[in-house]
Write a structure and sequence with these properties.
Distance between the termini: 31 Å
CATH topology: Rossmann fold
Radius of gyration: 19 Å
CATH superfamily: Vaccinia Virus protein VP39
Strand content: 15-25%
Bound molecules: S-adenosylmethionine
Helix content: 25-40%
Number of strands: 11
Largest sheet: 7 strands, mixed
CATH class: Alpha Beta
C-alpha cells in the first residue's frame, strides 16, 4: 500500500485499480458476458459454510436460507425454479451478524443495496419479523434480468405484511427518491455494484440518509475497491466512526454527527494495491 500525497497521483492509482482486472476479462467482448458475471463474487470458495449458525432463526426463514445455502433451485418471478450461482451470497456469519444487530438495536428502518438471490434480505426480514417492528427496503435494478427475480419472490412471500418494499432502480436513482421522500435509516447495507466508484457513490449518497447513531455497513472487504472506499471514509469522514466486529468481510461505520467538513477539506488516503485475482468464468 502507498500513501498518496496529491490528488493527481490518487487519480492515477484509482485508474490502475479499476483497470487491474485479469487480462482474460478484457479479451472477452462485453456482450458475451452475462449480467450475472458482472455481479458474482468469484472468491476462492470458503472451506465450509457454518450452517449451524442459522439455528437461532425462526421458521420459515431458517428452512428457506438452508435450502438456498444448499444450492437448491429457487422460485423465480416466472413461476419456474432456477439454479443458483453459488458464489452470490453473504456468508451465514455475516447474515447472522446483521440479524443479531437488528435484534439488538431494533431498527425502525433498514435498507440494502443489492439483493442478488435475497440471502441478506432474508436475514433482515427474519429479525424484523421477530422484533415485530421495522420496515426493510431493498434496492436492485437487475433483479428480474439477472436473478430471475428470486431475490424478490422469496422475501415478498415471507415478509410480514407492510414491512418490506422492493425498489427496482439503481441505487443512485433510488437515493434521490428516498431523500426526496425524507426517508432516513437506522441501518444501511451496501452490497450493490462493486466497482470502486459504485461503492464510493453508494456510501456518499446513503451516508446522507443515515440517522445520527445509525450504521452504514460495507460488504466485501476482500475487494480492493471496497477497502479503498473504507480507507477514504476512515481518513476523511469524521462524521462516521468505525465499529469493530468479528466479521472480517464487512466494515461497519456509525454516523456520529453531521458532515461539517470545509469545502476544501481533503486528506490523502491509502489505496489498496493488493487486488485479488477474480475469475469471470461461469
Ligand atoms: C453480490 S449481489 C448481492 C448479494 C446479496 N446481498 C445477498 O446477500 O445475497 C450484488 C447485487 O447488486 C446489484 N446491483 C448491481 N449494481 C447495482 C446498482 N447500481 N444499484 C443497486 N443494485 C445493484 C446486482 O443486481 C446484485 O443483485
Amino acid at each position: 500500500m502507498s500513501l498518496l500525497a496529491a490528488n493527481t497521483s490518487w487519480l492515477i492509482a484509482c485508474l490502475n485499480l479499476t483497470h487491474s482486472r485479469p487480462t482474460d476479462t478484457k479479451e472477452k467482448p462485453m456482450r458475451a458476458r452475462s449480467l450475472l458475471n458482472l455481479f458474482s463474487k468469484r472468491t476462492p470458495r470458503p472451506p465450509g459454510l457454518q450452517l449451524e449458525l442459522l439455528d437461532d432463526l425462526d421458521a420459515p426463514f431458517k428452512s428457506t436460507l438452508l435450502s438456498m445455502y444448499h444450492g437448491e433451485p429457487q422460485l423465480g418471478v416466472d413461476g419456474q425454479h432456477h439454479s443458483l450461482d453459488e458464489t452470490v451470497k453473504i456468508s451465514p456469519e455475516e447474515g447472522m451478524w446483521l440479524y443479531e444487530e437488528c435484534r439488538k438495536s431494533k431498527p425502525g428502518r433498514t435498507v440494502e443495496i443489492g439483493l442478488g438471490y435475497g440471502f441478506s434480505t432474508l436475514f433482515f426480514l427474519a429479525a424484523l419479523a421477530k422484533n415485530n417492528f421495522g420496515h426493510h427496503s431493498a434496492i436492485d435494478p437487475y433483479q428480474r434480468s439477472a436473478w430471475h427475480g428470486i431475490g424478490l419472490t422469496t422475501p415478498k412471500a415471507l415478509a410480514p405484511p407492510g414491512r418490506f418494499r422492493f425498489v427496482e432502480q439503481t441505487s443512485v436513482r433510488a437515493a434521490v427518491e428516498l431523500e426526496r421522500e425524507c426517508w432516513a435509516y437506522d441501518l444501511i447495507f451496501i452490497d450493490g455494484g462493486h466497482l470502486f466508484e459504485d461503492v464510493l457513490v453508494d456510501f456518499f449518497l446513503y451516508a446522507k440518509l443515515c440517522k445520527i447513531g445509525g450504521l452504514v455497513i460495507l460488504d466485501d472487504m476482500w475487494m480492493s475497491s471496497v477497502k479503498t472506499v473504507v480507507s477514504f471514509v476512515r481518513t476523511n469522514r469524521s462524521d462516521f466512526s468505525e465499529v469493530q466486529t468479528p466479521i472480517p468481510n464487512i466494515c461497519v461505520f456509525q454516523r456520529v454527527g453531521k458532515d461539517e467538513r470545509k469545502w476544501h477539506h481533503f486528506r490523502p488516503f491509502i489505496v489498496d494495491q493488493h487486488q485479488i485475482e477474480v475469475s469471470d468464468e461461469s
